[in-house]
Amino acid sequence: MVVVAALGACSKNTGGSGNGGNENDVTKNTGGISNNPKDSQGPAPAVAGAKKGGDLQILQTSDFEHLDGQRTYVVQAMSAEQLFSRTLTMFKQGKNGKLTLVGDLATGPGKDLDGSKCMNWEYTLKDGLKYEDGSAITAKDVAYGISRSFSSQIAEGPHYLAQWLANDVNYNKTYKGPYNGGADIGPGLEVKNDKTLIFHFKAPHCDLPFALQLPTSTPVPKAQDKGAKYDLHPFSSGPYKIKTYNRGSKLVLERNKFWDPKTDPIRHAYPNTITYNFGPTDTTETNRMIADAGPDQYAVAQENVPQSLVPKVTGNASLKDRTISGQGPFVYYVAVNTQHVKDLKVRQAMAYALDRKAIIQTLGGDALAAPATTLLSPTVIGWKNYKTFDGGESGNPAKAKELLAGKKPKLIFGYRNNPWGQRIAPAIQQSFEKAGFKIVLKPVDPENYFTELGRKDNPFDFYITDWAADWPTGAAVLPVLTDGTSIQPNGNNDVSYYSDDAYNKKLDAASKLPSDQSADDWAKLDQEWSKFAATIPVYYNKSLSLTGSKVGGVELSTDLGTNVYTSVYLK
């Protein structure tokens, strides 16, 4: 049985207005949790016309910040990890972007032992699961992997499970993970036997099956754990394993001969090897795909088509079959570091001054972005449009100056030092300086960008970042980005560092509701949060990228909002 819920879908662009603020412009689909055991069984249905063989080349501007599952929270890395890491559950994507949550390592999406109270959940591992050395994957390895996520040494990944298991947003206040003498298995986790893991919560967590599709539930055998160095060679539980990894240059994946497709309902593993090549700019990637010469026929451009080449790509009918395009789940927003910018009127002035139209034009126009005024994406269940401190698409410098009342605040803007960031930074700088601000640009290494923003003591006054719901409810957005009680020294996702006690209590109350009852609460909290002007939505993303002519099966993930390669093959 499939429990139906509305899920946002990435579909082909249809030439709409690109407003982003009109519910009619949002493509939606249905999907949900499958309780039919057959949906969790492998092998995955064959892709028509696909065959095994060849070396897929993926062109990517920057290396991954992390490949350790418990440290990963950036979608390109999560896409790569699907090739060599498995999780307890996973989304299976069907036609038109329809998502169904199924068991990946587990035989299904989980059993609520209390009927529907969502406080005790049981997961059973499938038969025949093995690592890259042929050893068995066990429930203890999954529990150990989750327990690692409590450690402050590897704090960059999702914190849902640790917070829920500890029953505290400050999840590592008591149990600090398995390092430095800590127990191998953290609170709330019961390893019943080699194949059975039970989660015990002190409060209801009905979204657990969704949370377990995040890489936090990747199994890690203790003997292979190298702490922070595990990033360089995560131990494979998937169809590929790491052959070589030269940081900043190249990652080569080769087959894991111990992966059994009969256990896997999603992955195919058609190419013999998959190679990530780090360094080419988005312009270089796109031009190489257009030229389609030699080995590039077997390549994929990971980055979106840059502004300068959008007309060339969209106007060339011969590229249509090699174009990966659609509406994405991401909201890009300015996060104001409220530890530094404490004056509400200054933050309101920033919101009024923002020229979304100019910023979107630097990206490539309506083909790649639509103006955003909400922190929740239109692809989230219950999304409602609102406009708070809104100066219109081109901003309102006069209103911003009125709020500043003669002040000319000097603010440090930390921007991602890659082609995207280099284009967008001047547009944001000019947007604010028209209203009287003095903006100092500070580049940040793109391979450490989110790590730097997540440091509570970071030196920047504001930055632009992005977020997509980990599953399509407000529970996977607002508690992560806006709960001030969760702020830690490192690894923060609430990078505005703002906290309001009354608002935090409302977040906690909404988090305890089943997902089918909480949609209106999340929409109201989204709008309430906007009154603090701690985050300023900029745009909803769209995707537009190219593949070589000999590549098939690349999908734009409805879940991740980036290219995924579980069905990729070479012609």
Automatic annotation (TrEMBL):
User: What does the record give under GO molecular function?
Assistant: peptide transmembrane transporter activity
Region annotation Disordered: residue ranges? 13-51
Q: Where is the Solute-binding protein family domain?
A: 102-485
Compositionally biased tracts (Polar residues)? 27-39
Biological process (GO) annotations?
peptide transport
User: Do you know which PANTHER family this protein is assigned to?
Assistant: ABC TRANSPORTER SUBSTRATE-BINDING PROTEIN (PTHR30290:SF83), PERIPLASMIC BINDING COMPONENT OF ABC TRANSPORTER (PTHR30290)
**Which protein are we looking at?**
ABC transporter
Q: What is the source species?
A: Actinocatenispora sera
